[in-house]
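User: Just a sanity check before I run the rest of the batch. Below are the structure tokens for the first item. I only need the designed sequence back.
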């Protein structure tokens, strides 16, 4: 084999194809249309039938709940080990619809396939091209990351009356299997501390790895025929399904979100309300891809400097500062003055934990008396250095002396 990769650069036509494919994947992953449309359900059943046939299994019964949260309640109610399933289902063990989760079978097969496909890509495409394309698809997967975090962050889910009631209502509304209704109603795992989900590849439209592979296949990557068949099948599954939870004889999945707000790079983000909302009323609040509590968005006036400083999670604390206002936080927090010259003051702001604080330069306009602040390099120790860094001088540590009246633009 030649040392020169098959794809060392893309022609304008190839780049156009890649961009078009990515745009189509973006539309699908951010769609808020319900999967309960008859044509969508028909397509879904066709794809699921092919998927199960590839595993030598008969088509399962398909139940669509309203959100991944409801599906996670279903999944977490199901004992995950053989011993636990035997204990819970007793004589029904071999016939109970939820006695045979098949995620391990699907995951193991995908892992082996993934290694082979990844190896083919690395051998035939320059890494700078492959990584650039892959990163775009990874950004689309950030919605799924936030949803996953929101689900697994639910503490003692059987004590969450609102979520539990919604789940039971959906079981009664959408599932006609008496064994399933009986098993989840009697709460077979009362000690459950948190909810679980099957894994990334079961996120449907929020798992875009297969869309990345499909893009490279369409580009002309020399995958084997076996690889192409699996890529096509899994890509169809991702397009057809939202989050899905597979058993041998039953497939439980979530309907799509009814509302989704993202920023320019695809991270869940909404400054006015929930970033993600589902048809059962389950909502996820996020700021630039960071999961946050509802009241940070709904009741921003409740934020105080003391509450921000008490927050243990650094990323959430940064969001709180963004919402509260960086200028206001710097002015109102108990900052330590490092240096003061004329209208400027260099402050050490108690922003991060573990001894990592923020350094900010504060200026009071002599004409309007307005106060402006600007974060500067953490190694700045006096006003001269901060002003030099603000001017873009690389050697700011050896800054020239401060001159009265020098005002930087905010």
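Assistant: Here's the designed sequence for the first item:
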């Amino acid at each position: 084999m030649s040392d020169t990769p098959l794809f060392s650069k893309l022609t304008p036509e190839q780049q156009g194809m890649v961009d078009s494919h990515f745009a189509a994947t973006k539309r699908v992953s951010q769609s808020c249309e319900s999967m309960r449309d008859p044509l969508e359900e028909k397509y879904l059943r066709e794809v699921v039938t092919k998927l199960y046939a590839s595993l030598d299994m008969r088509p399962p019964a398909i139940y669509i709940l309203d959100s991944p949260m409801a599906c996670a309640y279903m999944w977490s109610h199901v004992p995950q080990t053989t011993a636990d399933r035997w204990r819970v289902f007793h004589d029904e063990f071999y016939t109970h619809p939820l006695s045979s989760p098949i995620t391990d079978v699907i995951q193991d097969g995908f892992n082996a396939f993934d290694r082979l496909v990844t190896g083919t890509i690395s051998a035939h495409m320059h890494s700078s091209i492959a990584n650039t394309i892959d990163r775009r698809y990874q950004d689309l997967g950030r919605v799924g990351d936030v949803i996953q975090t929101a689900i697994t962050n639910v503490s003692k889910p059987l004590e969450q009356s609102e979520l539990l009631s919604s789940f039971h209502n959906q079981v009664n509304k959408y599932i006609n299997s008496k064994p399933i209704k009986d098993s989840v109603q009697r709460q077979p795992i009362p000690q459950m501390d948190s909810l679980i989900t099957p894994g990334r590849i079961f996120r449907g439209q929020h798992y875009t790895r297969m869309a990345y592979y499909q893009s490279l296949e369409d580009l002309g990557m020399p995958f084997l025929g076996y690889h192409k068949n699996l890529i096509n099948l899994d890509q169809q599954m991702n397009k057809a399904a939202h989050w899905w939870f597979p058993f041998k004889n039953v497939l439980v999945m979530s309907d799509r979100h009814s509302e989704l707000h993202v920023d320019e790079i695809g991270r869940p983000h909404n400054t006015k309300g929930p970033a993600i909302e589902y048809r059962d009323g389950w909502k996820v609040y996020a700021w630039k891809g960071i999961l946050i509590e509802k009241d940070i968005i709904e009741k921003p006036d409740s934020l105080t400097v003391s509450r921000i400083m008490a927050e243990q999670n650094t990323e959430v604390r940064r969001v709180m500062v963004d919402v509260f206002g960086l200028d206001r936080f710097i002015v109102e927090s108990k900052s330590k003055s490092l240096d003061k010259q004329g209208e400027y003051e260099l402050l050490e702001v108690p922003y991060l934990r573990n001894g990592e604080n923020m350094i900010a330069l504060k200026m009071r306009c002599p004409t309007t008396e307005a106060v402006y602040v600007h974060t500067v390099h953490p190694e700045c120790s006096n006003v001269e250095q901060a002003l030099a860094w603000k001017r873009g001088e690389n050697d700011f540590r050896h800054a020239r002396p401060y001159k009265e009246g020098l005002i930087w633009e905010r």
